[in-house]
Structure formats: C-alpha cells, structure tokens
Amino acid sequence: MAASQWDALHELEELLQRYGHGARLAGAAPARSEHLATADWKPPVDIAESAEAYLIEMDIPGVPRDGVRVTIEDGVLTIQGSREAADEAGTARRAHRSERPHGRFARSFALPEGADPERVSARIEDGVLHVAIARRAERGRRGVEIRVD
User: Is residue 2 a part of any domain in this protein?
Assistant: First the structure.
C-alpha cells in the first residue's frame, strides 16, 4: 500500500493559484499571473533578476534531466515534470515514512515585457533547475538637443 497524506494547505494554495493569486515575475501583467496545472506537488522556486536576465531556480532533487520540460508559449514560461516515489522506482522496500513529494509537478510564470523568449537557457545542477531568460536589449536612447529660436 502506497503512503498518501492529505495536505490542506496544498489544496488551498492550488485554489488560490487557479484563481490568479499566484506569484509572478517582476513587471508581468497582473492578469497573467502564475497558475498551477494539474500536479501532485509544487517545487519551491526563487525568482530574481540581474541586469542581463530574469533568473528562476527550482528545487527538484531526484528528477532526471529527461524528466523535466521547460516551454514558453504566449508569454508564459512553464516548467513541468515528474519524480517517482522510491517504492515506485523498482526497489523492493516498504516505506515507513514518506515526506518527500513525488508525482507530477508544474509551475507557470508570466514573462515580463522586457524578457526575450528567444534567448532562454536551462540546466540542472545539484538538484536545482536554473532557468535564465535574457532581457531584450533596450534600443539606445539618445538625448537630442532642440535649438530654441
């Protein structure tokens, strides 16, 4: 028998996410906030920005590279994948306690206006997914002096 635990806080967070009260990248339009797709767990995320890019770090220990999918569609970055439970991974063992989440996960974030969806990189290092979305180069703004007659 697989261990299962009801998480009331997770269900409340899922409801809030469905109705648009989630986090979003700085500068993103409020109407296009994060939403949570059908998922079994929600990996924690840090979002930051530098002068060159918007940065997302997601804790996904135990998730293989081929178990993660990163996409951008209509200005929304989506990260999804899955992690098997230890007893589902082919081991002959019986769990006495299972606190680490497993199953499908999905997180989506609206990209801010300054993000360049054509220049995105992603890598996994030490169980952390690092996604960098480059900023669009701002067109050079030059000052023009107007002669006053």
Answer: no
Give me 16's structure tokens. 């809030």
Q: pLDDT (tens digit, 9 = 90+) per residue, 67-112?
A: 999 999 999 999 999 988 766 556 667 778 878 888 999 999 999 9
Give me the domain span that covers residue 35: 8-135
Residue 29's domain is classified under what CATH number?
Answer: 2.60.40.790
Q: What is the pTM of this model?
A: 0.67
